[in-house]
Amino acid sequence: MIPRKSLYPSFKVLIVDDEEPFIRSLSIALERSAGINNLTRCQDSREVMGILAQGGFGLVLLDLNMPWLSGDKLLSSIIEEHPEVGVIIISGINQIEPAVRCMKLGAYDYFVKTNEEDRLVLGVNRAIQMVEMSKEHKEIRSRLLHDRLENPEAFEEILTGDKSMRAVFQYLESVAKSAMPILITGESGVGKELFAHTAHRLSGVEGPLVSINVAGLDDNVFSDTLFGHAPGAFTSAHGVRKGMIEQAAQGTLFLDEIGDLSVTSQVKLLRLIQNGEYYPLGSDRPKRMNARIVVATNQDLDKKQAKGEFRKDLYYRLCAHHVHIPPLRERKGDIPLLLNHFLGEAADALDKKRPTYPRELETLLANYPFPGNVRELQAMAHDAVSTHKAKMLSLDAFKRKIGSMTLPAHDHDARDVPEDESVFVSSKSLPSVHDVTDLLVTEAMKRADGNQSIASRLIGISQPALSKRLKKMKQGD
Fold it and tell me: What is the mean pLDDT of the chain?
């Protein structure tokens, strides 16, 4: 069975012109040069408003001089009755006055038929992107305002009850059908690949999701992997090799660890996104990309740009839609949910009975910063179940993994205290070491829910030392 060709853009584009040869040539140019194939043709200007009333249109390419109804009149009617639909005027007259008039009425752009075809195609592409962004912004506002999620089943693999994660879901659902790239960022272990799979499911495309980890690929391997090669391209190239772009046709191309891509390869990726075309190695015939691009990284791309390690123009192309996944330490309410899931998962894999665990375990984990995020919690759970023998799950396996719970440097920086400010009020006297120690111990006991073993780990002292301090504080009261 031949797969049905996917349509681009997601909305319909109406071409209105009384000259059938021009409609035909423009349709061919749009599909050949930009992959724009979701086209509807109309030669009778009197039918335009009825066609638009059927819905699903986002852009009209409108001839200015036509019998029955002129482009001017139609433009005014479209703007009034369908303000969400963009209009580009295409005229045989190269005059300033009509162009200015149409732009004042609300047209996106004005082109002369005799001008270069490439310029017209670029203008249509710009208009499509503007319409897409406008639709997406409205959709995002609507979903966030009404706390709406149309396809909750698409997110079943991502376990969470956190409000910030739900907002991420709503945003991803709003932009998933766009043809623009999606940039997914987040620390290692937060589940960026799961979000890429979810974006693919929500996109509605019929092709596959093809994933590539680009970290460590040199420029030649990157080019061959993505673009493929023709016979004789290099010594061992005896036949045709389809690149990952071609394998992802009608689907999604997912490039993981994009922050580690070499600068030379970044240039090639930028050209691919800009032009929508690529050349297999050893071939002088271009191929069109027919896949949506999703990329992910755990790198700080702003810092890499400042160091000259990541191109700014590529970054702005990739972050048309930016999905940032918060780390586990910022959504600690998800820990019990994930812990139960991973314990059950490990028990099934090891053919063991699902263990119960002491109440203190959730408190212990809630005070750990999880530098490895969800993946680290999963590894902890599997390790604990693998060594589990008694009815109640022991805390020892988790304590061994956690070690000292004194917070690492990046967590100390998260106190929301600017570098040029102090945690102390300059107009007041400094507290004594005794007072500060008491405050620290009190806060540790609060976070540990009264558990001295956990509290001592939080502040990096032994449990006997903490117990002794607590007794002194009690005596002082």
Answer: 87
